[in-house]
TrEMBL record:
Magnesium is required for nucleotidyltransferase activity. It comes from the Bacteria. One of its GO terms (biological process) is tRNA 3'-terminal CCA addition. Mg(2+) binds at residues 21, 23. It comes from Congregibacter litoralis KT71. It catalyses: a tRNA with a 3' CCA end + 2 CTP + ATP = a tRNA with a 3' CCACCA end + 3 diphosphate; a tRNA precursor + 2 CTP + ATP = a tRNA with a 3' CCA end + 3 diphosphate. ATP binds at residues 8, 11, 91, 137, 140. A single active site specifically recognizes both ATP and CTP and is responsible for their addition. The lineage of its organism: Bacteria, Pseudomonadati, Pseudomonadota, Gammaproteobacteria, Cellvibrionales. This is Multifunctional CCA protein. InterPro entries: CCA_bact, HD_domain, NT_sf, PolA_pol_head_dom, PolyA_RNA-bd, tRNA_CCA-adding_enzyme.
Length: 443
């Protein structure tokens, strides 16, 4: 019996990238031998065990053959005669099919080290095609390692296109698609995930609403990049960048558990909202292009469709709907009257859901910066809205009651109305104070 480190841990060690978990493959053993050594069995369909001390996963070397459609249609074969090379051959990418033995020597029969050096994501064998989930996995690895210079090999992209053309993606359960997508949205360059899916036709199959945005023009005055699909890719990049910065701050402040995905993990709620914020632009009637009046409302049912299709968690869905409906309000926050501003604060969770509100601000900032030549622009609207939130929050029932004899006796709806009126008055004051400052500055 011999044990080897395999998969992501070997790959990431060689790349000098943070290793998350270590998986092992065991050659020349049967399940009862591992059980006798104190391992516990966890795999249902194939023999995977947890080490008695480290609890790291140890799988018996196995081969796989496709039986039916989709991700689960496999026939697995394992016994003490299955070799390491056979086990590595069933794996997706050459860079994931390298093993390291106890002496530190690499076993690399499919050229994974060379592909790591040459920054290539390449399939191991034609068996790649047997697992349609790999289309999403390759796009996700491309998003993770794009900044290191990795691209997908031409012949691998061809196999991915073949999987899509055969309609195999439709057999993937919604949950599996969402798990891969959500992980991809947290990667360093989530826009690369979308680009790779588009290059092999998977975007059209999975997210036709996003695919439809490519080729749709916007007004060049606001959007020098013109193409809506290109804009969305730029917004994704900004959303990842901005949400990583925020995650780093939070990590320092509250030592939260956000960092399970490594130091560069973005916020998938923000990135998902970035992906879906302009879906309405894909159904703008052609005779009004490049204008998109009303695209926010038009996009809402499309966001709902996507969320339903992939069983998207509620927090992601809520933020995506909020951003879709209110991103333009945010961009012109300084123009809004007190009553509209208060409605916006209420609708975006400013008063009760601080996390959703912060994520809303971040996504809108990403939208503003996700335009050609505007990547480094300031976004003063975010501070303005935070100030507006603080002003609205500062008006309390106790303070209102203490302020005058008339308000002291107010109860129920009446006090609610008075609270609202006072908030609106102060928000109008905020707007006016900025206006006078602007006038003074320009005068
Ligand atoms: N559909 C899949 C899933 C997994 N694997 C193989 O199983 C290993 C472990 O899978 P997983 O833990 O999902 O991925 P990692 O490569 O460890 O990547 P990550 O860093 O994202 O966890 C992979 O390296 C790959 O060799 C595969 O070939 N095909």
């Amino acid at each position: 019996m011999k044990t080897y480190l395999v998969g992501g841990a070997v790959r990431d060690e060689l790349l000098d990238y943070p290793v998350k978990e270590r998986d092992w493959v065991v050659v020349g053993a049967m399940p009862d031998e591992l059980l006798k050594l104190g391992f516990t069995q966890v795999g249902k369909d194939f023999p995977v065990f947890l080490h008695p001390q480290t609890k790291e996963e140890h799988a018996l070397a196995r081969t796989e053959r496709k039986k039916g459609h989709g991700y689960t249609g496999f026939e697995t074969h394992y016994d003490a005669t299955v070799t390491l090379e056979e086990d590595l051959q069933r794996r997706d990418l050459t860079i994931n099919a390298i093993a390291r033995d106890g002496d530190g020597s690499l076993i690399d029969p499919y050229g994974g080290s060379a592909d790591l050096t040459n920054r290539i994501l390449r399939h191991v064998s034609d068996a790649f095609i047997e697992d349609p989930l790999r289309v999403l996995r390759v796009a996700r690895f491309a998003a993770r390692y794009a900044h290191l210079g990795f691209t997908v090999a031409k012949e691998t992209l061809e196999l991915m296109s073949e999987i899509v053309a055969q309609g195999e993606l439709q057999y993937l359960p919604a949950e599996r698609i969402w798990v891969e997508t959500e992980r991809a949205l947290r990667e360093q360059d989530p826009q690369v995930f979308i680009e790779v899916l588009r290059d092999c036709g998977a975007l059209k199959a999975l997210l036709p609403e996003v695919d439809a945005l490519f080729g749709i023009p916007q007004k060049a005055t606001y959007h020098p990049e013109v193409d809506t699909g290109i804009h969305v890719l730029m917004v994704l990049k900004q959303a990842a960048l901005l949400s990583r910065k925020k995650t780093r701050r939070e990590h320092v402040e509250i030592n939260s558990a956000h960092h399970t995905e490594g130091p560069e993990s973005g916020n998938s709620q923000v990135v998902f909202a970035a992906l879906t914020h302009d879906l309405g632009k894909g159904i703008t009637p052609t005779d009004v292009l490049p204008g998109h009046r009303g695209h926010e409302q038009a996009g809402l049912p499309l966001v709902e469709d996507v969320c339903k299709r992939f069983k998207v968690p509620n927090a992601h869905r809520q933020l995506a709907l909020t951003v879709c409906e209110y991103h333009l309000h945010m961009h012109r926050a300084r123009e809004l009257r007190g009553d509209t501003l208060l409605k916006l604060l209420e609708a975006t969770g400013a008063l009760r859901q601080p996390e959703r509100f912060n994520n809303y601000l971040l996504t809108c900032e990403a939208d503003s910066r996700g335009r050609k030549g505007m990547e480094n622009r300031d976004y003063p609207q975010a501070d303005y809205l935070r100030q507006a939130r603080d002003i609205a929050n500062a008006v309390t029932v106790a303070e209102l009651k203490a302020s005058s004899p008339e308000t002291q006796s107010l109860e129920g709806k009446a006090i609610g109305d008075a609270l609202k009126k006072e908030r609106i008055r102060r928000l109008d004051q905020l707007r006016e104070s900025y206006r006078s400052r602007d006038t003074a500055l320009s005068g």
